[in-house]
Structure formats: C-alpha cells, structure tokens
Write a structure and sequence with these properties.
By secondary structure, the chain is an alpha/beta fold. It has 3 helices and 4 strands. It has a single domain, classed as NAD(P)-binding Rossmann-like Domain (Rossmann fold). A 4-stranded parallel beta sheet has the order 3-2-1-4, with helices on one face.
C-alpha cells in the first residue's frame, strides 16, 4: 500500500513516519515544506521517497503529482 504523509518533518509527522517504517507494510511518500537538506536529518529519510512541496503550490493534479497514493495522512498545517 502506498501512503502519502504530509507534514512529515513536523513533530507528529516524524513519529508517524517512524511508526509506518517500523510496521514495514507501506511504500511511503513523504512531503513537507522543509527543504531536502532539512529532511536529510531525519532517521527515516533514506527509507522513503521525499518530495519537498508547499501544499499552497498550484498543483494541477495532486493525485498524480504524488504518484497515486492509496492513503493520505494529512499532518501539514501552518
């Protein structure tokens, strides 16, 4: 199952990412407003696909842009 996690570098997002990886049943796409250089500091970085994105960006097809995930865990906010 492919899961998209928004806000992956946030306080809660980091815990969710680590738990999804621990369960070892998911293809994970992580996204955050933080740059790749910031995301590199997280333990999970090399185990997922990371896409730096501001969800305010005008993405024409959100579903396709994020590689057609089966599930979404939305943790991004300002």
């Amino acid at each position: 199952m492919k899961v998209l996690v928004t806000g992956s570098t946030g306080f809660i997002g980091n815990y969710v990412m680590n738990e999804l990886i621990r369960l070892n049943n998911y293809d994970i796409i992580a996204t955050s407003i933080d740059s790749t250089e910031v995301a590199l500091n997280f333990e999970w970085f090399n185990k997922v696909k990371y896409i730096q994105s501001n969800l305010d960006d005008k993405i024409k097809n959100f579903y396709t842009f994020f590689e057609e995930p089966d599930s979404l865990i939305h943790l991004a906010w300002e």
